[in-house]
Specification:
Distance between the termini: 119 Å
Helix content: 55-70%
Largest sheet: 4 strands, antiparallel
Order of helices and strands: HHHHHEEHHHHHEEHHH
Structural class: alpha+beta
Radius of gyration: 36 Å
Strand order of the largest sheet: 1-2-3-4
Strand content: 5-15%
Number of helices: 13
Length: about 475
């Protein structure tokens, strides 16, 4: 005769205790996204990131992108489009959901095991029932939770840095695209001046008023100006495509307009006397390295706590028979450390912890240096651009005005006037490249306050590298 199994009261009490220890750990990826948004809002200037590609969000996002692309694409509009439309960033944001799921998983109690068996001996039928729980995992649960929470916080910082990098890369690509567009316009002016000079030289040489050498020089300058124009067209196309990739655009969306010129150079540069202190306060990679060291320290403590008890299980049993009284009891299973005393595992954990401590120190030292270097690059770029604005460009303009007076007085010829016009255009174009380099340096300096940045290689201006001085 079989008996109906009723869980003893101690089973119920044990289950209640375990549920109270488990607590409530829910999936909250949106909270992680809000943390990322808060950390990156100062640099990006955006207060809303979009989680994934929910069907209900897609029409509103497309409409917003179309509205921003309808006008000449402003700098911050480009950043906004990149943050809500770049596929790589959208994929990166899912790391928040993965880390949050791992945090919740680490907070869950280990599942208990249940066993049931039926034995017969003659007319006797015996039922064996058992419930087993891994006490080792239960004891380590608080530390496991802290480790997983630290990992989740580290992922949030890494994703925040990815958001900031995308915003910075978009700004830099926008500056390069606008500057390339301006450079192409200037190269067209140089090409027109060189064409006029070469045509005039050809006509004068045809009537014997110009030597073959002088004509060859003018024709050579025209050929170099034509090559520079081709290079400027290539630079414009490449910079435009890079911006398109960062914005995540395709199809008809790629046909957008950019402003005609770069923003004006600020009158005064930023002054950063406490630049190194800022590195320690705001650098996300420093915070992530410190978090990793703390997580490994907790893992080391956990390893020491469970060094000799890798397996610790508690089991309760309830056996019944149709011919004997019910048997109840419990058992504890412990692994005997006869062959493995966990010395190698502990040595590995200690080595990993000390390795992370040294890496944290390296990250902190590099952060200070990178911030100083970034500010020096920013100041140097401003000094160069300001020198062009305040000294070289006004002097070149004055020289052109004086040459015009000399030409009107018939003291110089038309070739001298054309050469001066070419030099003036080249000077203005060099100032444009200096402006671009300044804005790129400022964008990189803004990012380096929060994390490492790979310095951009400013593209060499096609006109300035290919065009001669133009003097005769």
């Amino acid at each position: 005769m079989n008996r109906t199994f009723k869980p003893p009261m101690r089973f119920v009490a044990l289950g209640t205790l375990l549920l109270s220890m488990a607590g409530c750990a829910n999936l909250t990826p949106q909270s992680s996204l809000e943390q990322v948004q808060q950390q990156s809002a100062e640099l990006t200037g955006q207060d809303a990131l979009h989680w994934g590609r929910q069907q209900e969000q897609a029409p509103a996002l497309r409409e917003r992108i179309d509205d921003l692309l309808a006008e000449p694409l402003a700098l911050e509009s480009a950043v906004e489009i990149a943050l809500m439309n770049n596929p790589g960033l959208q994929a990166r944001l899912f790391d928040l959901g993965i880390a949050d799921a791992e945090r919740v998983q680490a907070s869950r109690l280990p599942n208990p095991g249940f066993s049931i068996g039926r034995m017969t001996r003659g007319t006797e039928v015996e039922w064996e029932r058992g419930l087993h729980l891994n006490l080792g995992s239960l004891i380590a649960l608080p530390m496991t939770r802290r480790i997983a929470a630290g990992q989740n916080a580290q992922v949030q910082r890494e994703v925040s840095l990815s958001v900031m990098r995308l915003a910075t890369d978009t700004r830099i690509a926008w500056y390069h695209a606008v500057a390339a567009q301006q450079s192409l316009a200037y190269s067209e002016q140089v090409l027109q001046a060189a064409d006029a000079s070469a045509e005039l030289a050809r006509r004068m040489a045809a009537v014997g008023n110009y030597s073959a050498l002088q004509q060859a020089r003018e024709q050579s300058f025209y050929a170099e100006a034509a090559l520079a124009h081709l290079q400027a067209e290539r630079e414009k196309s490449a910079s435009h495509e890079r911006l398109i990739r960062l914005l995540g655009l395709w199809g008809e969306q790629m046909d957008f307009a950019l402003p005609d010129r770069l923003p004006d150079l600020p009158q005064h540069p930023l002054d950063q006397p406490d630049i190194e202190q800022q590195a320690m306060a705001s650098r996300l990679d420093v915070q992530a390295a410190q978090q990793a060291a703390e997580r490994l320290a907790t893992n080391l403590k956990l390893g020491k706590a469970t060094r000799f008890i890798n397996v610790l299980e508690l089991g309760v049993s309830h056996n019944s028979s149709n011919e004997a009284p019910v048997q109840r009891g419990y058992e504890i299973t412990v692994e005997l450390p006869l062959f493995d005393w966990s010395g190698a595992r502990m040595a590995g954990n200690e080595a990993r912890y000390m390795q992370q401590v040294r890496r944290t120190a390296e990250v902190a030292i590099n952060a200070r240096s990178q911030l100083r270097e970034g500010y020096q690059a920013y100041r140097s770029a401003w000094d160069v651009a300001a020198h062009y604005r305040d000294e070289i460009v006004p002097l070149r303009k004055r020289i052109s005005e004086e040459n015009m007076l000399l030409y009107n007085g018939m003291f110089i010829g038309v070739f001298d006037l054309l050469a001066d016009a070419r030099e003036q255009i080249v000077t203005v174009n060099r100032y444009l490249q200096a402006q671009r380099d300044f804005w790129v340096a400022q964008s990189e300096f803004d990012l380096v306050r929060y994390g490492p940045v790979q310095p951009s290689q400013a593209s060499t201006a096609s006109i300035t590298s290919a065009s001669p001085a133009g003097g005769h």
